[in-house]
Amino acid sequence: QSKVCGNLKKSNRCPQQNSSFGLLKFTNENSARNRLHVSMSSSSTSHGTAQALIFDCDGVILESEALHREAYNQAFREFDVNYHWSEEYYDELQNQVGGGKPKMRHYFGIHGWPDSKLGTSPESQEDRDFLIDSLQDRKTQIYQEFIANGVAVARPGILELMDSALEQRKERNLRVAICSASTKESCLFVLKNLLGLDRFNSFDLILAGDDVPNKKPDPMIYTVCSERIGVDPSQCIVIEDSKIGLLAAQSAGMKCWITYTSSTEKQDFSGAEKVLPDLSSVTLEDLFPMYSKA
């Protein structure tokens, strides 16, 4: 069986059959950006209650804050936008606002909508949307160039933990997913380059920021993930790197482990199950202690 789920606009639910979960498949580069091809299989097996391990992308799979900031600044320069985000300010901004377009809207709303090579400071919503979309599209291209050139590397322990989870998913009745605040185009490009296609295609579900209308710290992306993979939120463990991500996971009713980065290490992670500098010493049995008793 198969179904197609597009971006969610008015509802956070993608209709699905009972006792089923979505397995994300991308048929080619164009359809990967435009739709989700989801094949169905049973979520109820003889291995007990289904559980899920869900990874954030930026900051968890790779430490990418500096690359994102430089990509935005380069896009600003190319569009003759007279703004520059310092390292200190970007750390503050990214820990307040989730998603690239919301970040720019937030910043421009405070500091003023800028003149650019597209024209004078936009006043209408349509012109503001066009400026934001144009900047974000160029920023994504620049960021992808950084990734393609091998500038980014996986964080310590992440690939080993992923591989362990993916290898044991059938045995453990475990779903493995990724929920990223990045745009779909950027998310897919990064994951394919950093994880490799074999590992990338093994995930049960991958959701990007533009698959849901509400961004973290809103819990929608995690709530939708839970619904699509057919796992109760109480049985989901999320790996995040920021307070925004922690709040999103907690609000969705999920447990959350934090692997902080240099830009998030001073944040308040109250309520997290664990707070660690990386995943180099974390095993699947640490996350799901019942596995060590099986």
TrEMBL record:
Origin superkingdom: Eukaryota
InterPro entries (alphabetical): CbbY-like, HAD-like_sf, HAD-SF_hydro_IA, HAD_sf, PGP-like_dom2
Keywords: Hydrolase, Metal-binding
Pfam families: Hydrolase
Positions in coiled-coil regions: none
Molecular-function annotations in GO: hydrolase activity; metal ion binding
SUPFAM superfamilies (alphabetical): HAD-like
Keyword Nucleus on entry: no
Protein name: Uncharacterized protein
